[in-house]
Amino acid sequence: KKQLPLPARPGELLERTGRLRGLPPPAAAAEAEALLEEFHLAPHRHKRLATLSGGLRRLVSIAATLIGSRPVLIFDEPTNDLDPEVRRRVWQRIRDAARKGATVVLVTHNVVEAEQALDRVAIFRGGGVLALGTPGELKARVARQVRLELCFRPGAEEPARALLAAWPAARRVGAHRYTLVLPPDEAEAAVRHLLGWLEHLDDFRVVTPNLEDVYLELSGGERLAS
């Protein structure tokens, strides 16, 4: 998004990009028009990029990546600034490109979304590769564990501290939200224990691990201070 020429307009940018990638002028114009319609950018085709919102610029950047049916597509945080409906459409387009034979390289911090779109995943930290494999292979590293997601009611800070004192590996993920990864037998005991604290909880869930749990397991995670 930051690399877009801000004085340009979406329509001319897409058409010019298509021509630079070898499309004949009529084909470049037709594909640019199709992408403008697909991503609901048609009403903004003649506006300067500098006047568009961050989300619209993000969509223009994605459309510019897609035009010309390139064999390798590189996306850097493609769904930042996008609302859920548009984000779903973008992921579908990325999956479609991969099914048609394109190699998709995706850089993202949203590992939950990435898990649904990628065939192979490399987990990086500090410039090094922690792990490489399919989502299934990576999740197998924590397959014998389950994740508890706890949401405490506002004002329940003291009960939260008292409850979580038994689980120093719990990780804070929001103002009142915590996650905890446990072996199945310990998770079962934890759920029974939580039933006595329901008055302090808005919600709790038991879910199987995702790639975020793999990352935390490999990197040592961020521990909750006691």
Describe this structure in words.
The protein has 226 residues and is α+β, with helices and mostly antiparallel strands. It folds into 2 domains: 10-119, P-loop containing nucleotide triphosphate hydrolases (Rossmann fold); 139-219, Alpha-Beta Plaits (2-Layer Sandwich), CATH 3.30.70. Helices cover 42% and strands 19% of the residues. The chain has helices at residues 10-20, 25-38, 54-66, 84-99, 111-117, 135-139, 157-164, 184-194, 211-219, and strands at 72-76, 103-107, 121-125, 128-133, 146-152, 171-172, 177-182, 201-207. The chain has a 4-stranded antiparallel sheet with strand order 6-7-5-8. Strand 3 and strand 4 form a beta hairpin. Helix 1 (10-20) packs across helix 2 (25-38). The two termini are 41 Å apart.
CATH architecture descriptor name of the largest domain: 3-Layer(aba) Sandwich
Q: What is the CATH homologous superfamily assignment of the largest domain?
A: P-loop containing nucleotide triphosphate hydrolases
Classify the fold: give the CATH topology of the largest domain.
Rossmann fold
Label the structural class: alpha+beta
Report the uncertain regions.
222-226
Q: Strand percentage, roughly? A: 15-25%
* Number of DSSP helical runs: 9
Average per-residue pLDDT, rounded, comes to: 86
Instruction: Give me the strand/helix succession.
Output: HHHEHEHEEHEHEEHEH
Helix content: 40-55%
Report strand order across the widest sheet: 6-7-5-8
| CA-based shape | elongated
Distance between the termini: 41 Å
